[in-house]
Write a structure and sequence with these properties.
The chain has about 190 residues and is mainly beta. The chain contains one helix and nine strands, in the order αβββββββββ. It has one domain: Beta Barrel (Porin), CATH 2.40.160. The radius of gyration is 18 Å and the shape is elongated. InterPro entries: Beta-barrel_OMP_2, OMP/PagP_B-barrel.
């Protein structure tokens, strides 16, 4: 599955790079992550983080519209109201976003596929489960956000990403879905723009 993902990202980048002006960057920030769904015992949000790579392929000469695939390591999960029960999940998120520049303000939205790469369940600070076979390895979702492009390639933005698919296959288990608010800081390297 990881080889398929890397091949897909490489092919997508190659196709866009051949036909568009490309720009690369990095992104890092805070996640305010929670789990939504029926009867979730981890209904409170908790702070986690994200970091990764951005590529932006301009499809118009005035740089108004671009396609922006990303590869992000993103921590998600949720905790109980009294903080004694926590579900911590780690993903590789691959959003492919439409990016619209409106002056220094930008808008972005699009689909996202997430690959679970780790996680654990904690009770009273003790790890009780780090296998997490009850959660799917892959989930489908969406992302949407707004931000500000500052001079010299810096960007700051807010984004929401959520799951469309539930996190488990068990019909008797509660229907959990990731729900994440992101505060993100980015830097776009000057490249072929």
């Amino acid at each position: 599955m990881k080889k398929t993902l890397l091949l897909f990202v490489f092919m997508l980048a190659t196709v866009f790079a051949a036909n568009a002006q490309a720009q690369l960057g990095v992104r890092v920030g805070a996640n305010y992550a929670g789990l939504t769904g029926d009867e979730t015992s981890a209904s409170d949000r908790m702070f986690r983080f994200h970091a990764g790579l951005i590529s932006r392929f301009y499809l118009t000469t005035d740089e108004f519209f671009a396609i922006q695939p990303e590869l992000l390591f993103s921590q998600k999960g949720g905790e109980s109201e009294d903080d004694d029960f926590k579900i911590k999940l780690s993903y590789i998120d691959v959003p492919v976003l439409a990016h619209i520049n409106a002056g220094p303000i930008f808008f972005e939205a699009g689909p996202q596929v997430s690959f679970r790469v780790g996680g654990d369940i904690e009770v009273n600070g003790t790890n009780i489960d780090d296998d997490l076979d009850q959660f799917k390895r892959t989930s489908l979702g969406y992302a949407a956000g707004v931000g500000f492009a500052a001079p010299m390639g810096l960007t700051v933005g807010v984004r929401y990403n959520g799951d469309i698919s539930q996190l488990n296959d068990d019909d008797n288990a509660p229907e959990y879905r990731n729900s994440v608010f992101m505060l993100t800081l980015g830097y776009m390297f000057s490249g072929s723009r």
